[in-house]
């Protein structure tokens, strides 16, 4: 066969990471309550499915928003022909307004700076192409979304340098960590072109506080490098403290910032739960970047049919206000039920108030404090507990024992089965969790926990395939 390109034959897609392996395990044996009750439950997918009934109701009441209805078909021809890479004005206006609403209307977005792309995936690559040459580097705080290794690096030739954040301070992005990564990149002869922060964080489910954001802004200004803020989880903040966007910080009195350095990546994949629509946005404060990204957007336009639907939906203020409130409430309830249920078997997670996942701490279940032990535990969770969760190492976490678990991509019953499997597994492994030296003191604690659980669950309920007694929170909804 004639030789193919380095990009085609290289491993830049990163498909062989455990993050994707877990998906494969799920795909070969997906859980179904009746057809495949022993199947793998997908908890590795950051999807937001909780509001779909709410959205469906709106669609039923607004047939004109769709082109495939008697009420909408008169827009068919103009929409089918539309191909301007600036995007439909009504789409850009609606998205700009939505971005403002999601940020509590504390900041306004200019529709003329909205550039389309194929999801945040395409938006990240576009920004990387605009800002960096092959061999240049971006700093990225860990743990970070594994897709960045594909989106920013694969076709652009850009390098990512981790900013190592630690559990001892809840994975905060500190000035010390930023400086250390910057120096490391320089030592490796990499020219640092920017810093990429994800706020709210995937996988942590936490948000960056004002002080951290200000530190980040002053760091990038001092170094004269770009700041890319991935804010695709902005509307998933379901509990105080409220979300603060980088766009608010740069408008604050007393914050010195060269706005040409600031770029936001957004999408509707998480906030609205529409990853299939591929609505990605580059919002840059830099005119040259807007102009270049817009030209590049020809490679990843949002289809005009989708623009039409999104424009109709997001220009409806009532829908948007109610959707944002409903989504937050459902995420809050799911998160509370999930973390509460895990806490009942002694599993803790990083305190979080956003996102579609939790960052679960299974360090005490590791055979030893290594990434090999993390992978061993992960294999048991996939193959025996039959849950696809994602190991921390796939997020470049530098401490073994953390796992990301998604909680918004399934219905209540599947969630209950997943929780029961986790409980059954932990209870079965209780003794293994206890280091031999401390066995006496802690085992009595664990035994009493087991007994409480036994009291709670009859033998039939203890079957991993029967539903859990539901928390009062979930019962209240159903
Ligand atoms: C932080 C982050 N950025 C970007 C993406 C890609 O999103 P999209 O589906 O809009 O391409 C994801 C998807 O999980 C993500 O978590």
TrEMBL record:
Instruction: Show the InterPro entries listed in the entry.
Output: Aminotransferase_I/II_large, Ethylene_sulfur-biosynth, NHTrfase_class1_PyrdxlP-BS, PyrdxlP-dep_Trfase, PyrdxlP-dep_Trfase_major, PyrdxlP-dep_Trfase_small
Q: Name one GO biological process term.
A: ethylene biosynthetic process
Listed CDD domains: AAT_like (cd00609)
Where does this protein act, in terms of pathway? Answer: Alkene biosynthesis; ethylene biosynthesis via S-adenosyl-L-methionine; ethylene from S-adenosyl-L-methionine: step 1/2
Q: Where is this region: Disordered?
A: 457-478
Q: Name one GO molecular function term.
A: transaminase activity
Q: Which cofactor does it need?
A: pyridoxal 5'-phosphate
Q: Which family does it belong to?
A: Belongs to the class-I pyridoxal-phosphate-dependent aminotransferase family.
Write down what this protein is called: 1-aminocyclopropane-1-carboxylate synthase
